[in-house]
Amino acid sequence: MNGDGHLHHDRTPGVEQHESTISALTYTVGLGLAILATIASFVVAQTDLLWPPGISVGLIVLALAQIGVHLVFFLHLGSGPDDTNNILALAFGVLIVFLVIAGSIWITANLNDNMMEVDRAEKHERSPGSRRSTAIVRSRVPALATAWRTEPDRRVVLCSQRTELRSG
Amino acid sequence: MDTVQALPSGRHDSGPAPARIVVGYGFWIFILSDMVLFSSLFAAYAVLSGSAAGGPTGAELFNLRNVFILTMCLLLSSYTCGLGALSAERQRPEGFLLFAALTFVLGAAFLWLEISEFAGMIREGAGPSRSAFLSAFFTLVGMHGAHVATGLVWLLFMMAQVVAKGLRPAVLRRLLCFSLFWHALDIVWVGVMTLVYLMGVR
Q1: Going by C-beta distance under 8 Å and a sequence separation of 6 or more, which residues neighbour residue B31?
Q2: What is the average per-residue pLDDT within A7-24?
Q3: How many CB pairs below 8 A link A and B?
Q4: pLDDT exceeds cutoff 80 at A160
Q5: Residues of A in contact with B168 (CB under 8 A)
Q6: More confident: B80 or A163
Q7: What are the DSSP calls for B170-188, one per residue?
Q8: By the CB < 8 Å criterion, does B7 face chain A?
Q9: Which of A32, A117, A138, B43 has the maximum number of C-beta atoms within 10 A of its C-beta?
C-alpha cells in the first residue's frame, strides 16, 4: 500500500491499488502446459498409443486437464479469498453444463431405443397378421372421408360405421 | 503501515469489495451463462453427430492439420492477450497495444481459416442443410466463430479506448472483462477440438 492518501481513498467502493502476483511466467507456463496437452490429444487421437476403446476417455481426460490449465494459468482462478465466489459460480455452471449434456444424451438415447426402427416397422406391416386389417382400412377409409365431406347429414351413420370398423 | 492500522488492514475485512472484484464476478457469471448456451449446442452435436443421412461424415470432412493450426492460433492469441493484460496492469500502453495487435492478428487468422474451411465444405455440398450432423456442426462451431468475431470487434474498441483515454481504472476493468471473455473462448475451443474434431475423425 502506498501511503495514507491512497489507502483512505481506496476504502471506498471503487478502485483499489492491487499488487498483482501474476507474471509473464504464469502465462508462459500455462501456454507450455496447454500446448503439451494439445499435442498429446492429437497424438492420442491419431495413433494407437492408447488402448483403442479407451481413446475417447483419454481425449476427454486430456481436454479436462487443458481446461484446468486454462482456468488456473490464464483465468487465474485460485484458492484465494477473492476467488471464492468465482469458484462457487463455476461449480454451479459445471453442474448445469453436466446436466444439460449428460441429460440430453441420456434422454435421447432412451427415446432412440424405444423407437421402432424403420426396417422393423416395415417388416411389421408386411407380416400376415397385419395385412388384412391394413387392407380393410385402406379400402374403406378414403370412401368414409369423402362421404364425411360431401354428405353432412349422414355423419351419424358414418360415425357408427367407423366404430364398427374400429371394433372389427 | 502503522499509522493506518486503525483502518481495517486487509481489503476483505470490511467494507464493500473493490470494483475490480465485483465487475470480474459479474462478468464471470455472464461467461458461465454463455457456457450453458454452448453446453446445449454441444449436447445437440453429441446427439446428432451420427446422423449423417448418407452424406459425408466427420472422418471424411475434417482435416486435423488445419484443426491443429486453428488451435495454435487461438492458444497463442490467449497468451498474447494475457501478456497484454499484464502490460496494461503495469501502465505500459505501448506494450498493451503491441500485444493487443498480436492478439487481433492471431484471432483474425483463426477466423479466416475457419471461414475458409466452412466455405470449402459448403462448396463440396457439405453445407448445414445436408444432414442433421452438419446442421449441428455448423451451429456449434459457427457459434464459437461468432464469439471470436465479437471478441475481435471488442478488442478493436479496447485498443481505441486505451489510445483515447489511457489506462485508467475503468478502462482496466473493461480490459479485465475482455481477457476473461477471450480466455473463455479458448476453453470452449478445447471442447470443440476434442469432441467435434478429434473424436469425429475416429
Answers
A1: B180, B181, B184
A2: 58
A3: 144
A4: no
A5: none
A6: B80
A7: HHHHHHHHHHHHHHHHHHH
A8: yes
A9: B43
Best of B11, B22, B71, B171 to disrupt the A interface (most A CBs within 10 Å) is: B11
- The Cα A121–Cα A66 span in angstroms is 46
> Among all chains, which residue has been given the C-alpha cell 499488487?
A19
- B15 vs chain A: nearest CA distance in angstroms? 7
Scan for cell 454451479, then name that residue: A92
End-to-end CA separation in angstroms for chain A: 92
The angle that helices B169-192 and B64-89 make with each other, rounded to 10 degrees, is 160
pTM: 0.77
- Reading the block at residue A35, the C-alpha cell is 500446448
Q: What is the mean pLDDT of residues A11-33?
A: 74
In contact, B139 and B41? CB cutoff 8 Å: yes
Name the one residue in this structure whose C-alpha cell is 424405444: A114
Sign, CA torsion B104/B106/B109/B115: negative
Grid coordinates given for A28:
508462459
Task: Name residue, grid cell 449423417.
Answer: B52
